[in-house]
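Board notes (copied after class):
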Amino acid sequence: MRLLWLMVGLALLLLIPFFIWGRSLDEAFSTKNAAAWLQNFGPWAWAAGLLLLVSDLFLPIPGTAVMAALGFVYGPFWGGLLGAAGSFCGGALAYGLCRGLGRRIAVLLVGEQDLARGERLFANAGGWLVAWSRWLPLLPEVIACLAGLARMPARTFFLALACGCLPLGFIFAAVGHAGVDHPTLALTLSALLPPVLWLAARAYIRFRQRP
C-alpha cells in the first residue's frame, strides 16, 4: 500500500510544476515556437533540445513538441536520434537518482514488505512498464523513479528504456519534419511499437542467457 501511495505522491509532486507553468510552457514550446527557439542557438541547437528533454523530469516541457522541433531542424534521422537520446537521458537520470538513494532509504519510504513487492514487480514486468510508459504524460518519470527505487536491474531497465524512447523520438521527428499538426497516428505508433521492441529484446536476452 505504501508503494501505491508513493506512486501517487510522485505523480502529485510532478503535477505541481504543470499547474504552475504548464499552460505557458505549452504555448512557448509548441512545435513551431520550439523550432524557432532551438534555431536561436545556432550550431548548439541540438544541445538545447537535449537539455529541454532532460528537464522534462522537473518541468512540464511538452517533450513530443520538442522532438518534432528537432525533426524540423535536423531532419527525421538526426532529429529522431536526438529526440530519443534526450528522452533516454531523462529516464536514466530519474532511475539513477532514485536508485542512488540506496535500499535503506527505499525501506524507510515504502517499508520492507512493499519494497519486496516492488522489486518483484519490476523484476517480472518492469521491462513492459518502462518501455510502454514513455509515450504517456507524467507516467514515464514516475515509472523510472520507482524502477530505480526498486533497484530494477540496470541492463534490463536501460534496454527497456531504449525500446520506449527510440520509436518516440523517430516518430515525432518525422512528424516535425513533415509539418503534421495533429499526429494521431504518431501517438498510436508510439504506444504500439515499444512493447513490440521489448518483446524482441526480451527474447534476445533470454536467448543469450541460455547455457
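Comment from the instructor: Residues 2-208 form one domain. The radius of gyration is 17 Å.
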